[in-house]
Specification:
Subcellular location: Cell outer membrane
Largest sheet: 8 strands, antiparallel, barrel
Strand content: 35-45%
Oligomer: single chain
Order of helices and strands: HEEEEEEEEHEEHHHEHEHE
Membrane topology: Multi-pass membrane protein
Protein name: Outer membrane protein A
Helix content: 10-25%
Shape: rod-shaped
CATH topology of the largest domain: Porin
Distance between the termini: 80 Å
CATH class of the largest domain: Mainly Beta
Strand order of the largest sheet: 1-3-4-5-6-7-8-9
Number of strands: 13
Radius of gyration: 49 Å
Organism: Enterobacter lignolyticus (strain SCF1)
Family: Belongs to the outer membrane OOP (TC 1.B.6) superfamily. OmpA family.
């Protein structure tokens, strides 16, 4: 019954699929294991030697240590072929009726298919099924005899990858009927529980994922600027819009550039030339800016989005180019400074 349950467990593991944590397909691996061994379902006859023939029954000490080395080839993400050498430990036995004791020890070469089922990227369960070519030997009363054969092998285990190349495993293995009692006087199933270390060759180390570059800070769109000449918009020294000025503002309001930004903040700035006092020029420029703003509002622009400023003779366009002029020549030269600027923000 126990053998049947083990076999069913192996077959169930072999039929699973989905995620896998085994070595990369097409690569080799190797490792070593060490742990506890146990002989069970022991049977014996008394045909050891003249001394042991006196015994009609045997007592056994079935627990010992075992281990081995192994290597394998990963066929695909879930299936590998694995082989190796196992030392199955030894079993002490004692016969009754005064018969001398002895021991049985065994070892073998194994070959199996290993099927894995991934629980995560690093951890999987696996099952192995195959065969072992064994050599079993009994020693009693100074005599030894050995037997060889091939027996079925089953194993289940779990494997955890510490890195892409290095993993650890914990495994239970069972080999049926090691030894021929008609040849060496004893036979037993050999089981073991071992912990092992596995090195995987040629694994693809994942490239480190670079942190995404921070999104660039949004660049504010430059404001749209429209220059209106005051000499066209107003009479000299006046803040009342002329018919030409109203027409110019109407044309500006219906232009595609302004229509696409009517909901944006709009700043209307009035400027004057440098003739006259600074306070007078500032007040005149403010009134002219207000006149342009009111005309835009009348055409449909929201009053909440419009601000006005008067900046007088600041930010001169002509600079010192008119310094040597007087009278009407100076007035005409300073004409570019007399202006109203409409700025519409980019947001």
């Amino acid at each position: 019954m126990k053998k049947t349950l083990v076999a069913l467990t192996i077959l169930n593991a072999c039929t699973m699929s989905t995620a896998f944590a085994a070595a990369d397909a097409g690569t080799w691996y190797g490792g070593a294991k060490f742990g506890w061994s146990h002989y069970s379902d022991t049977s014996a006859n008394n045909d050891f030697n003249d001394n042991m023939r006196q015994a009609t029954d045997f007592d056994t000490n079935s627990d010992n240590v075992g281990g081995g080395i192994f290597g394998g080839y990963q066929i695909n993400n879930w299936l590998a072929v694995e082989g190796g050498y196992d030392y199955l430990g030894n079993m002490q036995f004692n016969g009754n009726n005064g018969a001398a004791g002895g021991k049985m020890k065994s070892q073998g070469l194994q070959l199996s298919l290993k099927a894995s089922y991934g629980l995560s990227d690093s951890w999987d369960l696996y099952g192995r099924a195959g065969a072992m070519g064994y050599r079993a030997e009994t020693e009693a009363a100074g005599h030894s005899t050995f037997d060889t054969g091939v027996r079925p092998l089953l194993a289940v285990g779990t494997e955890y990858a510490f890195t892409p190349s290095l993993a650890g495993r914990l495994e239970y293995q069972w080999v049926s009927n090691v030894g021929n009692e008609n040849q060496i006087g004893m036979t037993a199933d050999a089981s073991s529980v071992t912990a092992g270390i596995v090195y995987r060759f040629g694994q693809n180390t994942p490239e480190p994922v670079a942190a995404p570059a921070p999104a660039p800070a949004p660049v504010a769109e430059a404001p749209k600027t429209f220059n209106l000449k005051s000499d066209v918009m107003f009479g000299y020294d006046s803040a009342t819009l002329t018919n030409e000025g109203k027409a110019a503002i109407n044309q500006l309001y219906h232009s595609p550039d302004l229509q696409s930004a009517t909901g944006n903040t709009t700043l209307v700035i009035g400027y004057s030339d440098r003739t006259g006092s600074a306070s007078y020029n500032q007040a005149l420029s403010a009134r002219r800016a207000q006149a342009v703003a009111e005309q835009l509002i009348g055409l449909g622009m929201s009053a909440e989005n419009i601000r006005t400023e008067g900046r007088g003779a600041t930010d001169s366009v002509t600079g010192n180019t008119c310094d040597n002029m007087t009278g009407s020549a100076l007035k005409n030269c300073l004409s570019p400074d007399r202006r109203v600027v409409v700025q519409i923000s980019g947001q």
